[in-house]
Amino acid sequence: MYLPGTALDFSLAARSTPVVHAKVASVIADLAPDDVQLFPVEVAGQPEQFCILVATKLIVTVRPVTCRDA
Fold first, then answer.
1. Side-chain half-sphere of 45: how many Cα atoms within 13 Å?
2. What pTM, to 2 d.p., does this model score?
C-alpha cells in the first residue's frame, strides 16, 4: 500500500490494522502496558520506526443501563 504525503502518527493499514508511530506506541505502552501488544514494522519510504498496535483487552465504554439507544 502506498499513500503519498507525510506519514501520520496513526493510520489503518490493510484489514483495518492500526499502525502507530514509535512515539505513539511509547505513550500507549506506558499508559496500558498489560492491555496492548506492539509489533515493530518497517513502513516503505519512512526512516522512522512504526508499530502494529494490538489491543488485548476489551473495555466497554457505553453502559447499556444508562444509554437509551442500547
1. 8
2. 0.72
